[in-house]
Amino acid sequence: MSKRYVGLALCLAACTPTLNWREVPLEGGAVALFPCKPEHLARTLSLAGQPVTMTLHACQAAGLRFAVAQADVRSPARVNAALAALVAAQARNLQTLLPLSEPVQVPGMTSNVQARRYVLEGRRPDGSAVQAQLLVFAHGTQVLQATVLDGTSDAAAVRTFMDALHVR
């Protein structure tokens, strides 16, 4: 009888998805679809020369790190510079140059020429290679950056995460 339960437990474990997708509402009306339960962290930092409170929603699943960072820059005149600063900071953190990008259209976003998607090939502080899939956009004065680190191994998960972003 106990072998039967062990077999059932193994079968159920095999059926458990590695990526357990869930919709997560963010401040300002944005919504993200995470494959794991994100942790939330907020801190004040300088973005494009202005102090802002940056909130990070992040989790790790299937060897990938999924994150959405957001901040309210409080003025439409600061949005472009803030989006550019987010991308530049990510490139600097990965010790790489900014690659070519493609424009994006996130449902419900505020139209902006800085709304773009990037694939950055860089290095971690220990020198190991890393890839970041990056998408930046704005909704009003909220700037958002969605990132998947090491997204080369699961293109479908990266696409699901990025394509599900929207603003209500």
From TrEMBL:
UniProt organism field: Azohydromonas caseinilytica
Protein name: Transmembrane protein
